[in-house]
Specification:
By secondary structure, the chain is an alpha+beta fold. The chain folds into 2 domains: 134 residues, no CATH class; 89 residues. It has 4 helices and 13 strands. Helix 3 packs parallel to helix 4. Strands 5, 6, 7, 9, 10, 11 and 13 form a 7-stranded antiparallel beta sheet that branches. It has a 4-stranded parallel beta sheet with strand order 1-2-3-4.
């Protein structure tokens, strides 16, 4: 009987001599998937990268785009323990990563005595991240994900997964900047909006593009807070 082949993975190591190079060994290894760690510049004086005074990790706030070298499992335990919200999950997904949460909220069980107590370790505090991970998975399952790639260059928001001319998934992290643009190939697209905070789907009008150009969009008023725009070529 032969053995089934499974992907080999490697996570970051800690502690390391140079924190900014913590991800070099897994990236340079023969591992097929990796789980990166805090590789940001550490605050003056050195010390633990998550110690008070250290900058928040880019992997939490503005993750780098996956370049295809490795499957990236983005684990908050490795760069932002105790953190993780809905935007973290969506940003990670739109940059081509697989977000997983170090969920301190379930340490006391899924039905703690006071689930609405607030604070960084309460069960309720992590609900937005839990829902967002499920929502990103739902989109991953309905899209032709194997053909899509992180394409920050296609949207003024900087967050887009796209198979240009076929499917586009764009994150709008903040409504404060007003309308945003998406560079589309000529065709007709079905438009759908998703409210990150409310987890609600809002149908949009069909959009026809005559030539390769940047089209302006504004999230509907029904989608309060961060939103996701999903475009799919009509008839597919």
């Amino acid at each position: 009987m032969g053995y089934a082949r499974h992907p080999i993975g490697m996570t970051m190591q800690f502690p390391v001599p140079e924190q900014t190079k913590v991800n070099d060994p897994p990236l340079d290894s023969r591992a097929e998937w990796i789980s990166p760690g805090y590789d940001d510049e550490v605050f003056a004086g050195g010390g633990h990268p998550m110690a008070p005074g250290s900058p928040q990790s880019r992997w939490l706030e503005d993750p780098p785009a996956a370049d295809g070298r490795k499957v990236v499992i983005s684990d908050t335990d490795h760069y932002a323990p105790g953190r993780g919200d809905a935007l973290w999950a969506w940003k990670s997904f739109l940059r081509g990563h697989h977000p997983i949460l170090m969920d301190f909220g379930i340490i006391g069980g899924v039905n703690p005595p006071d689930p609405s107590a607030g604070g960084p370790m309460s069960y309720a505090a992590y609900e937005p991240a839990r829902w967002a991970m499920g929502d990103t998975r739902a989109f991953a399952e309905r899209m032709n994900l194997i053909e899509m790639a992180p394409r920050a260059d296609l949207s003024s928001t900087g967050y887009a997964l796209a198979n240009s001319g076929e499917e586009y998934l764009v994150l709008v992290p903040s409504r404060a900047a007003g309308p945003f643009t998406v560079l589309l190939e000529p065709d007709t697209y079905q438009v759908e909006w998703f409210s990150v905070e409310d987890c609600q789907t809002i149908p949009g009008a069909v959009t026809t593009v005559e030539s390769s150009t940047s089209i302006s969009f504004s999230p509907p008023s029904a989608a309060s807070g961060p939103a996701v725009l999903y475009l799919k070529r009509l008839g597919r």
